Amino acid sequence: METIYGNIQGLKASQLKQLQRLYHQRLPGDRLTTPEFAQRLAAVSTDINEPICTYINRRGQVIRVGVGTVRQTQIPPLELPRYGAERLSGIRCVATDLKRETPTESTLTAMALQRLDALIVLTLSGGGFERRGGGATGYVHETYLAHLVPGAGQTWTVSPPLSLDALTKQDFLDLAEGLEEEFRREYVAQQVGGKQDRVLIVGVMTENVASQQFHDSLAELGRLVDTAGGEVLQVLHQKRPRPHPQTVVGEGKVQEIALTVQTLGVNLVVFDRDLSPAQARNLEEQIGVRVVDRTEVILDIFAQRAQSGAGKLQVELAQLEYMLPRLTGRGRAMSRLGGGIGTRGPGETKLETERRAIQRRISHLQHDVNQLQAHRSRLRQQRQHQEVPSVAIVGYTNAGKSTLLNVLTNAEVYTADQLFATLDPTTRRLVVTDAVTHKPISIVLTDTVGFIHELPPSLMDAFRATLEEVTEADALLHVVDLSHPAWQSQIESVKDILSEMPMTPGPALLAFNKIDQVDGDTLALAQSEFPEALFISASDRLGLETLRQRLVQLVQYSTV
Questions:
Q1: What CA–CA distance (Å, rounded) separates 95 from 68?
Q2: Which of the 8 DSSP states describes residue 26?
Q3: What would the pLDDT profile of 308-354 be if each residue is shown by its tens digit?
Q4: Interior CA angle at 542 toward 541 and 543, to 5°?
Q5: How far is the C-alpha of 31 from the C-alpha of 169, rounded, in Å?
Q6: Other beta carbons within 10 Å of 278
Q7: Backbone angles phi, psi at 39, to 5 degrees
Q8: Which neighbouring-strand residues pair with 428?
Q9: Contact 314, 462 (CB under 8 A)
Q10: Longest CA pairwise span in the chain (Å)
Q11: Is 537 helix (H, G, I), strand (E, B) or coil?
Q12: What is the dihedral of CA 550, 553, 557, 560, to 10 degrees?
């Protein structure tokens, strides 16, 4: 039975049958519509006193009939037969309009979201067939033809009012194939220079978030996307009292996001907050491209950066723990029959099988992480037995921790101006001559994984073996990037993460790095707020001797 979409409440059985008969119509492949089909559609629309939309494929078959506007009856992007920035969907829409208006922005936006080949709007005369000069004018008053336009600056174009006769004589295939060729050329031009994801960032500012903090978070997300290998094309944001439970942003903003995706050729949308599995699924259905959240971007960076076996082990565990609640199945269609006693019938679905396999893998990885934890614990005990004090270098990601370790100990750890450039902890011995006793003192320095605002819980759990280096250290060296505009909030983020550690870390020494890149006002502000802190530049080797002596004092104090 042919389904009628949209608002069909109050329609009589005879009217529903008229709508269903529209599915039996067949149009020529090279024509936008025919006079007969247009007049019949207009007659049914006049009879039910509602706008009607029919969606027709390039073979001329009516594949969807809906009661309501184009916005109300549109096909979800994921249900379209072909969808992408480089082509059209292969479907045109013939719609009626009882108000005799030019197509509204809402209607044209719905056309763009579906990437329709064309949109034909029939405005109705309102009085059925009218006799003028001995001829019947029919139900159609005048028509409009709209279609997408390749290139930046303009999304669509709408024709002036056309007679039905002029509209039906236009060659549809010429129009659709010509447009598609232009879209393909533009898409290829955009892809030249690499296979980067083309990213749209979306932020939601709620009442409990300060404006500066929100914009700092969006800027940081942009850096995360860049580090992961994506190209940020645009940033959209919305202010709401609270996130929408189904789509995070409001319905209008979802439409704006979907239209921006189509206009810019975006293939990935990144939200600045964690999305529930249902929210991500709803957004993908309405937008038509992949939607991820901040945590998934961080996990992707970690997967790229992990070099050692331990690092890869912990990243895989974090990814699986993140993925497990996001598995979606297709119900009975994914079920399989059993093959023995007690297994006959529907059996377990493929979804359940996948979930069971992931849970087994997570258990195995957690066992390996526990062994890694025990191994690192034994190494720490050996150092403690030898009475060698340890200092863990902590700080926000990209604060310069690895650079500082390299300068102090010639560790040759990989460094780059990127977020999470290094994941694996590196331990090196530093020998310092005490300025008071003139005796050499050995200190073990450990470079730890960088922290970030709202570090995902799955990463906190997976990297517990690494983070234990922080809690078991005799003291901490907290490195801060003073050149970063949000250095104050970064200090608070690191303190918040340290406060959530299962064990209280030892005393900490605050060291402001990159002082060669800041102005006098910023330096003076930091000195007045943190008079006990050190001010250094690891790259220019400024203040390092003072740092060495302060580290000696720090470990002496911590051991006492």
A1: 9
A2: B
A3: 677 777 788 888 888 887 776 433 333 334 443 444 444 456 667 77
A4: 120
A5: 7
A6: 13
A7: -70, -40
A8: 445
A9: yes
A10: 117
A11: strand
A12: 160
